[in-house]
Design goal:
mainly alpha, membrane, 13 helices, cell membrane, about 0% strand, transmembrane helix
């Protein structure tokens, strides 16, 4: 068993074990029996809106690079929920890019551009929520440079390929082609003012819809969640899932939310319900979309 896989399993067991220990059956029955379905429906609506916003962001950026359709982009996004239920996030994203069609590396650069903006926004919010630290400011600076000084990264990668060229000319030629296609897509996306501003605004909206969902689910189970705590929960959930390497972040996402809201039965219920509404239920929808798309191609 690979070391990374073992660590992911241990992270999953620890996360689930910790959350289960916070749950008391009496409080659990009470929370479930008194849940307000109106706020759960509101959370479902915001979850679907967040998906549409992410789809629109990718569609806008991709539309500047190649011919595409909103329906195909939505299918790829939904299929990603299904594939990331059992695949690492990086592999799931790669499969989404393949499904959207067209030039793979241009589509990849369009997806990466939008995700990078969202990560930059989250990093900035983290400094406001948890307080500015030297390491936090350094990380934000690195992300900012990577996004806006892409020429430096391109030059560095080009030099790496140049080192490989004497050893394997064909491999170097292939890597150079991949790099050129990816960088051309990224550069066009960043330098187009309209595309950049729309992507930035949609990234902000995507984050707000996800944070608002935590507040809505909390209201559904009678747990008041302040906006600041909701931001902390969302950030910790994202961070824990990224570090754990667990497919779909199962357990790690919930642990981050539970810790941010204060370990309790209601916090655990909110955490699991939020992830079900915003992620797990869409894995089933994604499975239908994935096999419909694959079946149509075959």
């Amino acid at each position: 068993m690979k070391k990374r896989t073992l660590l992911s399993i241990l992270a999953f067991l620890f996360s689930v074990g910790y959350i289960v220990r916070t749950i008391e059956m009496g409080e659990l029955r009470e929370a479930l029996s008194t849940a307000d379905p109106r706020f759960l429906l509101l959370a479902f609506g915001m979850a679907f809106s967040a998906i549409l916003v992410s789809t629109l962001r990718w569609y806008i950026v991709l539309g500047k690079l190649q011919k595409t359709s909103f329906r195909k982009t939505l299918t790829a996004i939904l299929s990603g929920f299904y594939m990331m239920a059992f695949l690492p996030p990086s592999v799931g994203h790669a499969a989404k890019v393949k499904l959207v069609g067209g030039d793979y590396f241009k589509a990849l650069s369009a997806l990466a551009f939008g995700i990078s903006l969202e990560v930059l926004i989250l990093a900035g919010i983290s400094l406001l929520v948890f307080g500015a630290t030297t390491w936090g400011l350094l990380l934000l600076g690195i992300l900012f440079l990577a996004l806006f000084y892409d020429k430096g990264a391109y030059t560095l990668l080009s030099r790496g390929i140049a080192i490989i060229r004497p050893l394997s000319p064909k491999l170097a030629e292939r890597l150079e082609d991949y790099l050129e296609r990816t960088y051309s897509g990224w550069k066009r996306s960043r330098r187009d003012p309209t595309t950049f501003m729309l992507s930035l605004l949609l990234s902000v909206l995507a984050v707000l819809l996800q944070v608002a969902g935590i507040i809505a689910v909390g209201r559904a189970f009678g747990l008041p969640v302040e906006p600041l705590d909701a931001f902390k929960a969302f950030i910790l959930s994202t961070l824990f899932a990224s570090i754990s390497g667990i497919p779909s972040g199962i357990g790690a996402n919930e642990l981050g939310i539970t810790l941010a809201l204060g370990s309790s039965t209601k916090s655990a219920v909110v955490a699991f319900t939020y992830k079900f509404v915003y992620q797990y239920v869409w894995s089933f929808v994604g499975a239908v979309e994935f096999y419909r798309a694959v079946g149509g191609r075959s």
